[in-house]
Design brief:
The structure is a single chain. By secondary structure, the chain is of the alpha+beta class. It has two helices and two strands. The protein has helices at about 5-25, 35-55; strands spanning about 60-75, 75-90. A two-stranded antiparallel ribbon has the order 1-2. A hairpin with a 2-residue loop joins β1 (about 60-75) and β2 (about 75-90).
């Protein structure tokens, strides 16, 4: 699944509005001097949730190729061994 920037922007806006709603209450904390830290914490929590969900929609793909060569001893005498291979994969982040 490709990353959907339009949806991400909408989700970020919703997260900001949710944090604003949480922060616009009377007596956010017992001690008013703690209110800015609590408000920032609410904002950080909402943004982190949206960003984490967005990142997890990404698809990761990779391809690896390799060749191995070397000398070996066999009962019949010295020899050479070689091999090659490649692979690819696709997965999601979690």
């Amino acid at each position: 699944m490709a990353l959907n920037l339009t949806q991400f922007k909408k989700d970020l806006k919703d997260a900001l509005l949710t944090a604003q709603e949480k922060n616009q209450v009377d007596n956010l904390t017992e001690d008013p001097k703690d209110a800015p830290a609590v408000a920032m914490g609410n904002l950080a929590d909402e943004l982190a949730t949206v960003i984490d969900a967005y990142i997890k929609t990404a698809t990761v793909s990779t391809t690896v190729s390799t060749t191995v060569t070397g000398d070996c001893e066999t009962p019949a005498g010295p020899g050479t061994i070689e091999g090659s291979g490649s692979g690819s994969g696709t997965g999601s982040l979690s």
